[in-house]
Design a protein that fits this description.
About 35% of the residues lie in helices and about 40% in strands. It has five helices and twelve strands.
Length: about 250
Amino acid sequence: MKKYSIVFSIFFAMLLMSCGTVFADVDMSLNFNPDHVTIGTTYNGATVEVSGTVPAGCAAVVRVMGEHKDTKFKKKGKVLGFLWMNVATVELDDIPSLFLVATDSDTYAGGGKKWEDLNLGFDSVKGNSDTKIFHEFLKLVKHEEHYLIEDGVVEYHNEGNGLREFTAGLRMTSSLQKGKYTVEVVAVRDGKVVGKTTGPITAELAGFPKILSSIAFGHEIIYGISAVIIAILAGLFMSMIFSDKGAAH
């Protein structure tokens, strides 16, 4: 009996190894342009053109994820029955700062059970965070397009030699933060994930935003004093304008 148990264990281990190999050996490629986003004075969003190949017969799901971090935000509630105030601090553990998903016109199709079963949407990155709190968080970040699913963005082109070419244009939000991001392409066939490949992309500050960031994080005292001086000057400027208008009457 012990002999059969050992044989079965070896067979099961080999089966697992072969399954992992099938997943790893899926032929895929990924390219994107540009490979970095420059956030300058006139930056108002950018489009990253993603292209590559997935196995023939597969759909491509493109995902962009920011760095994972713990995120805190204030929870509002009624105090004394009528005052809306911050009543608690809520924390979400280890979630990406940015999460963009691009699909073709069929894979996502407005959501639904097939999409949920693939586990490639928002819930796939919520980790151990409370589901209700995470969904409240989604309402905030969707407004700034930090979490977004775009349907019908992925397009397919030539198919041959066992490969299928695809392209997709990913819109990066105008409030994008500097940092490292991961571009991921997932190959889907018959409702199952059969492979994926990833590549890095960076967002860098340039010009005035870079100078401002350098002062804010490298010279905190100077930044604080400058902010106060600018606020005072702005107040004086506005008071002079309105006082002149009043004198004209």
